[in-house]
Amino acid sequence: MKELRIGNKKARIPVVQGGMGVGVSRSCLAGAVAKAGGVGIISTAQIGYDEPDFADNHKEANKRAIEKHIRIAKAQADGGLVGANVMVALKDYEEHVKAAARAGADVVICGAGLPVTLPELLAGTDTKFAPIISTEKALNVLFKMWDKKYKTTADFVVIEGPRAGGHLGFSEEQLSEDINGNLNYDEEIRKIIARVRMQEEKYGRQIPVIVAGGIFDAEDVAHVMHLGADGVQVASRFVATRECDADIRYKEAYIHAGEDDVRIIKSPVGMPGRAVHNLFLEKAEKGECRVQQCQGCLAKCNPSEIPYCITDALIRAVLGDVENGLIFCGANVGKIKEISTVEEVISDLTKGFLAKEEKLVHRESFKDKGGGCKKDLTA
Predict the structure, then answer these.
(1) Quick one: angle between helices 218-227 and 353-368, nearest 10?
(2) Best exposed site among 160, 196, 304, 307 by fewest CB in 10 Å?
(3) Cβ-based burial of 376 (10 A; exposed 0-12, middle 13-18, buried ≥19)
(4) Closest Cα partner for 186 from 220, 237, 141?
(5) DSSP code per residue over 284-320
(6) CB-CB contact of 335 with 216 (8 Å)
(7) Considering Cα of 7, then 11, then 16, then 22, what sign does the dihedral take?
(8) Are 131 and 143 in contact (CB under 8 A)?
(9) Is the pLDDT of residue 359 over 90?
(10) Spatial distance between the Cα atoms of 245 and 222, rounded to a whole number of angstroms
(11) Pairing of strands 157-160, 262-266
């Protein structure tokens, strides 16, 4: 596998660990992934939940925790790349981006909305940036905005497909189509990559494309690389590792979850989300989880209208109250059967990669020569 180059930065292995809040991917997990050769990502979403002044001063507690955890992870990373995932939907989104850069984050990745001002926020720093997008249309809008206003473009791009965990950039109808096998997302990936390659020509530099959502093993990695990706982003696989920052009961919830336990939910963020079914989701559906006190996390949030406080729900879960908390997960959570290590996950994602890629190339070549097999890159 080729190394991942993002501007003047380099990761030995083209695996980006997805950002997971609240507190699921902080310094311990991100530092371990970076040390193993990948790109470790810290989620800034309510990252300071365990700071002593969080309840009364969550804004400053979060900024302090961002800088603290990035510095801890970088010290652990032994020269590896460490970055931050910052949700655009956060009330303090811009301050979180700046705090990450101050702490020396190698990269910042932004989703849950279009990061229109991201180039301006990181101007004059050595922090590289990427949007998380799900459609070529959204990327085209963002590229045009950045072209016009800043005369610049993304350092890399993360494509997040419909099988990802947490918040999803798809409608409920599209997600249902994917679950039923009627959504050909490979074509969208190809379109997005083609648009990025056009942008590369315009700016005369490489813009790596990272594909996320449903990446579980080396076969999945080979598949998206064959589509033209430069790397993958993986989140759920890293939850059930010893290094993950979440409580052991959170990790065990992943191990015990089956395919039938995965639900598409309505999040207070205003986007669909994928989570593990539990008592909390049952209560939320009945309207029994109303907000008691606003934690000020989201830019657009009316406590009287949302089904529950996402901060409270995520904090309860990461601390181990898995029946009364929100447990985000990817579509393949049912395949996770044991607690492993970061090194083992990365090995599983990369071992046998070349053989699996050759199999895909052979399948295409055989079809081109008139062979009897049907081209099926989703197999």
Answers:
(1) 50
(2) 304
(3) exposed
(4) 220
(5) HHTT----SS----BSS--TTTSSS-HHHHHHHHHTT
(6) yes
(7) negative
(8) no
(9) no
(10) 29
(11) unpaired
Q: Which residue bears the tokens 């700016």? A: 203
Task: For residue 266, give both structure tokens.
Answer: 């309505």
Between the alpha carbon of residue 369 and those of residues 22, 42, 125, 362, 374, the distances in Å are 51, 47, 51, 11, 12
What does each C-alpha distance from 252 to 19, 258, 320, 340 come to in angstroms? 19, 12, 10, 12
Q: Is the peptide bond before 22 cis (omega within 30 degrees of 0)?
A: yes
Rounded distance between C-alpha atoms, residue 77 and residue 35, angstroms: 4
CA within 13 Å, CB half, 15: 32
Annotate 21-81 with DSSP letters as a single string.
Answer: TTTTSSHHHHHHHHHTTSEEEEE-TTTTTTSTTTTT-HHHHHHHHHHHHHHHHHHHTTT-E
Contact 116/145 with Cβ under 8 angstroms?
yes
pLDDT range class, residue 293, cuts 50, 70, 90: low
> How would residue 357 be classed by pLDDT, with cut points 50, 70 and 90?
low
Q: Give the count of alpha carbons within 13 A of 317, CB side only.
A: 29
41 Cα distance to chain centroid: 9
- Beta partners for residue 15, in sequence order: 232
> Looking at the DSSP assignment, which residues form a beta bridge with residue 109?
85, 130
Average per-residue pLDDT for the chain: 89
- Predicted local confidence at residue 266, as pLDDT: 87
Q: How many C-beta atoms surround the C-beta of residue 202 within 10 A?
A: 12
What 3-state class would DSSP assign to 251?
A: helix
Query: Pick the residue with more confidence: 83 or 174?
Result: 83
Q: What is the average pLDDT across 361-365?
A: 48
Q: Tokens 């992934």 sit at which residue?
A: 33
Name 128's bridge partners.
Answer: 107
State the pLDDT at residue 373: 34
Reading the block at residue 228, the tokens are: 């033209």
3-state secondary structure of 276: strand
* Pair 51, 96: CB distance under 8 Å: no
